[in-house]
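Weekly sync, protein design subgroup
Attendees: M.S., D.O., the rotation student, P.L. (late)

Item 1: inverse folding check
M.S. brought a backbone from last month's batch and wanted to see whether the design step gives back something sensible before we order anything. D.O. pointed out we never logged the input encoding, so this time it goes straight into the notes. Structure tokens as presented (564 positions):
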């Protein structure tokens, strides 16, 4: 697939690639990769990187591979490998070939490490990780050279082979690149390339006791695959000189890849760190990684977010060189815009209150036409049963209405959507004074929702016929984090634990009464409950609904507030 970039203005990454193509740097070849570590599930931040890498390759008739960056056996697992592939497929992107694994390159990496040792560019250090880290120094602080820095290549080679053979304890030796302990860039101060860790790997099992660091594995994996443009997030900008140093000193099978960095996605009211997301699951704050309140791809999917809306959002925010935080309302507005076009309208009463029509002919049911989607004439109409016993929302009736309350109250006439005008006459109370039933009369002349005499009503309510209603469980959600910037420093300047900013009641569950057509909804389908929002039928149980987004465009309100 190729063609024009869908992006209105070309971003700096696309400019970089275009310049390379014009200069024939890689003979016009474009190859990118998406390199997740299989230690958790993908989240919406990853989606930004995914669409950037895959679409960039497509736009240039290039290649984009999925590569698992599986160099940390402690935290990684095959289950994440599978889940990540499912999530990519759901987002609508496809690796240009079978997924690759950094672990497939362990042997090549080892060979290259020996070649650096032979040329005096790497050495075995007997110091522990903590000592090595302290000796690195800091900005304006000198680095301290290891006492083992000047071992001969022969001695280093011997020790390195023994490391591989398991002769030494975990953590007792490390292989380090010999670069410059006084470099201004900390990453060039003799970075660690290998650590000894007797941890079984999910793919190589117990074949290795040496594991490469991210910096030693990443650029080399890029080179092995033939990547041209290696795109990562800003925190790796400082690693770039090291990325280049390793590649400059190796005999590469293909052109030398280059790295560029873009700003990661941050969203208000959201945390996007796998570590923090894991802690929410482990502490029981959410049910699982695919809880609809989670910003994971699986969570958003269960919540009813269409993948195309996620992509449209990612396109809109673009790619920048400085970090910023995007309002979550913008993402929601893309979801709402899309669902407005596609979701069928249905009626559902989330907090049911009985409404009895006292002048309704006994045992009579009429079938009324209701429009499935006013935005999509092809969606047609459906028939909805109407009877003398209905469910309406508790919030749509008040015995003593507050000012400006235009819904149902004794003596007031309102429209029931697609049905009749009704006037409340009385209410039945329980012993505690709560309204448990509303009595009303209907006007048979108003079938379809308008009066022949042209009289108007101030509100239209949704409803469900009680004998025809289907029971369903409906989850309403608040933001998972109440704070706009979870964990942001307080007045004292101290960073705080984002978990202190969790919403105390982010989920509210109701036993709802929904119209009969919803008995046939497919798992995962999103419909609009009239007046209430968009709701996704759960992926495992179509009698459970999750509110995807409400109907009000909060993004538009934010824009208005910013202008004024
Ligand atoms: P986290 O910080 O959430 O644990 P990570 O960066 O450790 O994420 P990886 O699996 O290493 O997760 O990420 C795979 C790719 O996704 C990397 O190239 C990374 O730069 C990119 N990525 C991760 N988070 C974001 C984000 N918030 N915005 C854009 N890209 C991201
Ligand atoms: Mg990472």
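Designed sequence read out in the meeting:
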């Amino acid at each position: 697939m190729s063609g024009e970039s869908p992006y209105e203005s070309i971003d700096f990454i696309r400019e970089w690639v275009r310049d390379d193509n014009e200069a024939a740097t890689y003979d016009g070849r474009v190859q990118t990769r998406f390199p997740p570590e299989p230690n958790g599930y993908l989240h919406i931040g990853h989606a930004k990187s995914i669409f950037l890498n895959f679409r960039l390759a497509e736009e240039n008739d290039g290649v984009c591979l999925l590569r698992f960056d599986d160099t940390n056996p402690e935290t990684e697992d095959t289950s994440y490998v599978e889940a990540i592939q499912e999530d990519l497929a759901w987002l609508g992107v496809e690796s240009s070939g079978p997924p690759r694994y950094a672990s497939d390159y362990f042997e090549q990496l080892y060979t290259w490490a020996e070649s650096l040792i032979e040329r005096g560019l790497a050495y075995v250090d007997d110091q522990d990780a903590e000592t090595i880290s302290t000796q690195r120094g800091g900005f304006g602080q000198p680095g301290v050279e290891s006492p083992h820095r000047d071992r001969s290549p022969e001695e280093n080679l011997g020790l390195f082979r023994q490391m591989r053979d398991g002769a030494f304890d975990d953590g007792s030796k490390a292989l380090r690149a010999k670069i410059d302990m006084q470099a201004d860039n900390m990453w060039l101060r003799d970075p660690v390339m290998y650590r000894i860790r007797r941890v079984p790997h999910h793919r190589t099992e117990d074949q290795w006791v040496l594991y490469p660091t991210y910096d030693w594995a990443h650029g080399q994996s890029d080179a092995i695959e033939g990547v041209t443009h290696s795109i990562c997030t800003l925190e790796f900008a400082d690693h770039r000189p090291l990325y280049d140093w390793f590649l400059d000193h190796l005999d590469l099978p293909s052109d030398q890849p280059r790295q560029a960095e873009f700003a990661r996605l941050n969203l208000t009211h959201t945390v996007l760190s796998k570590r923090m997301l894991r802690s929410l699951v482990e502490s029981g704050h959410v049910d699982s990684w695919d809880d609809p309140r989670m910003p994971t791809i699986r969570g958003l999917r269960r919540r009813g977010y269409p993948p195309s809306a996620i992509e449209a959002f990612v396109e809109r925010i673009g790619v920048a060189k400085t970090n910023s935080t995007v309002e979550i309302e913008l993402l929601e507005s893309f979801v709402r815009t899309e669902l407005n076009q596609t979701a069928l309208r249905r009626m559902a009463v989330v907090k049911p209150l009985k409404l009895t029509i006292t002048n309704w002919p006994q045992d009579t049911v009429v079938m009324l036409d209701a429009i499935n989607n006013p935005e999509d004439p092809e969606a047609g109409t459906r028939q909805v049963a109407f009877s003398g016993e209905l469910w309406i929302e508790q919030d749509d009736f008040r015995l003593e209405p507050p000012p400006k309350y235009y819904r149902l109250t004794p003596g007031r006439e309102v429209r029931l959507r697609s049905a009749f005008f009704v006037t409340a006459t009385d209410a039945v109370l329980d012993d505690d004074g709560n309204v448990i039933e509303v009595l009303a009369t209907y006007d048979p002349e108003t079938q379809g929702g308008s009066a022949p005499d042209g009289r108007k009503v101030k509100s239209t309510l949704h409803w469900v016929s009680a004998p025809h209603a289907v029971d369903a469980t409906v989850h309403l959600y608040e933001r998972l984090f109440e704070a706009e910037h979870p964990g942001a420093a307080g007045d004292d300047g101290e960073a705080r634990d984002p978990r202190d900013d969790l919403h105390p009641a982010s989920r509210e569950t109701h036993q709802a009464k929904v119209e009969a057509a919803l008995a046939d909804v497919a798992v995962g389908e999103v419909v609009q409950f009239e007046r209430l929002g968009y709701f996704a039928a759960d992926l495992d149980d179509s009698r459970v609904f999750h509110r995807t987004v409400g109907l009000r465009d909060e993004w538009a309100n934010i824009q208005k507030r910013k202008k004024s």
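Discussion: Residues 43 and 295 are 6 Å apart (CA to CA). The chain has three domains: 12-262, 274-344+472-563, 354-369+388-456.
Action: P.L. to compare against the previous round before Friday.
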